[in-house]
Amino acid sequence: MSVKEETRLSRILINQQEHYSTWPDDKTGRESPARAAHTSDVTAAFRSEGCLMARAAFSAAEVAALEHEISGAAGEYHPEATVVEEGRQSVRSMYGGHASSPLIHRLICDERLMAPAMELLGDEVYLYQFKINTKAPLVGDRWPWHQDYAFWAHLDGMPSPDAVTVAVYLDEVNEFNGPLFYIPGGHRAGLHRCEPATCAGMALGGSDVSANLRFTLSADVVGALVADHGLRSAHGPSGSAFFFHANLPHASGLNLSPYSRRQIFITYNAVGNALSRSPKRAEFLVARSNEPLRAISGSLLAA
Ligand code: SIN
Ligand code: MN
């Protein structure tokens, strides 16, 4: 990697916070120079922790444009599938539809997301899945403990966990509005076996999109992993980008606060890790094209 690329990546990730549990004690968003990470440190941190936070990577104006685009009011974004919370009228998730919106396509190709994804995976990347989780104020539902790679390996035949997901925060995420919980370093144990008891949802017709997920981690596995590695939650200001490994155990709770928690989830797969057979799941869960994406630099709002 050239010095120029290294500097750029370091700048993108310079604000990574090592201990998110300290939030909101440090609300300044400033980091001490000692924390300024070089690319190699960033990659090593990702390998060790299974995640990276780029705080406020997108400006308020960029976030406002994304909010407008997905609001259904005037934007061009039209999801391919909309999931409603069980027993409630609120929208849980919107899947796919990225091709309908030049702004969303631009976001997916944004260098601030793609450069770290390519660096962390050591390859070119293509889009595997795009979704927006809207976790609405007071009614947003939970996501049980799981590893994303369980779905991609068992259902799609993804060869290895060489994929990374980035969550782009359209709202501040704090302890009240259902932050993502994760076990730092928990990805290093690989994919946990899916015991029949753990996969009760499968027998019961569990899904990939509701709180009744098909592949979840048992209480025993979560307990043992947390005893070894601890537990954190991915707090951050709006505009932040949280990258996480395909095997990172994660979950999130209800949103009982009056604050919304809207996050765009973009999964990039390494081109060398493309599926060798055509996927059986719907296109909104597994994008069909594995053409490498070309990164675009600059503001999302530049013409
Ligand atoms: C996911 O695991 O796919 C989503 C988790 C969340 O939105 O909290
Ligand atoms: Mn997940």
Explained architecture:
The protein is of the alpha+beta class. It has one domain (3-17, 39-273): q2cbj1_9rhob like domain (Jelly Rolls). Helix content is 25%, strand content 18%. It is built from eight helices and eleven strands. The protein has a seven-stranded antiparallel beta sheet. The radius of gyration is 18 Å and the shape is globular. The two termini are 29 Å apart. The structure holds succinic acid and manganese (II) ion. Residues 146, 148, 250 line the site of manganese (II) ion (MN). Manganese (II) ion binds at residues 146, 148, 250.
In short:
With 303 residues, the protein is of the alpha+beta class. The chain has helices at residues 3-13, 39-49, 60-70, 102-108, 111-121, 148-156, 200-203, 219-229, and strands spanning 51-54, 81-84, 91-95, 125-133, 143-146, 163-169, 180-182, 232-233, 241-245, 250-252, 263-270.
